[in-house]
Amino acid sequence: MSEDLRPQFARDGFLVVPGLLEDALTAQVLEALRALIAARFPTLEDDGDIHTLLRAAQALDRGGLAAVYDAVRKTAAFWRLIGSPALQCIAQELLDTQALGVAFHGAGIRLDLPGEDRWRSDWHQEYHAQLTSQRGLVAWFPFADVDDSMGPVSIACG
Questions:
Q1: Which of 32, 94, 146, 151 could form a cystine bridge with 142, CB 3.0-4.6 A?
Q2: Residue 152 and residue 150: Cα distance in Å, rounded?
Q3: Alpha carbon distance 27, 33 (integer Å)
Q4: Secondary structure tally for the chain: helices H, strands E
Q5: Side-chain half-sphere exposure of 60, counting CA atoms within 13 A
Q6: Which residue has the higher pLDDT, 148 or 17?
């Protein structure tokens, strides 16, 4: 991590670090997600666009898609990503510690779908949402390109 990022994190309370995670790791999570969708919804055809696939699963059985959500965050691919050396290194630097833990119940994947606001999170601080440690970090990373039209995560600077 470059030295200029630590003061930026201290000032703003967050960092944006493009390219931190290996594409291969995120691809493995997407492959696991696709496999779970295929198992739950065998009649769906995958045209390569994960958003199209998710919306098709939503239209067939929203409860079944919720089961996929619960399952994908338990896959080995997801935990390889969560435990990746890149995330570990930056967390150790920012928290100034070698001892890291992961909030098992707090680690998850959001499958936010266009026009579906029922499960969206209101403004919150992660400590209150997770009740784990006051010295924690949240890593937010998209599995697909995100633009403003999709309603990306909003962060209160500072």
A1: 146
A2: 6
A3: 10
A4: 7, 0
A5: 18
A6: 17
- Residues with Cβ within 8 Å of 109's Cβ and at least 6 positions away in sequence, in order, are 29, 33, 69, 72, 73, 78, 143
Virtual CA dihedral for 85, 8, 96, 73, nearest 10 degrees?
Answer: -40
pLDDT tens figures, 108-130: 777 777 777 777 777 777 666 66
Give residue 16's identity as a one-letter amino acid code.
V
Q: Tell me the C-alpha distance between 70 and 108, whole Å.
A: 8
For 26, half-sphere exposure in the C-beta direction (CA atoms, 13 angstrom radius) is 14
Q: What angle do CA 141, 73, 128 make, to 5 degrees?
A: 70
Kindly state the tokens that stand for 118.
């029922």
- Does 76 score more than 90 pLDDT? yes
Tokens encoding 93: 């630097």
Flag whether pLDDT at 77 surpasses 80.
yes
Sole residue written with tokens 């496999």: 35
The secondary structure of 54-75 as a DSSP string is HHHHHHH-HHHHHHHHHHHTTS
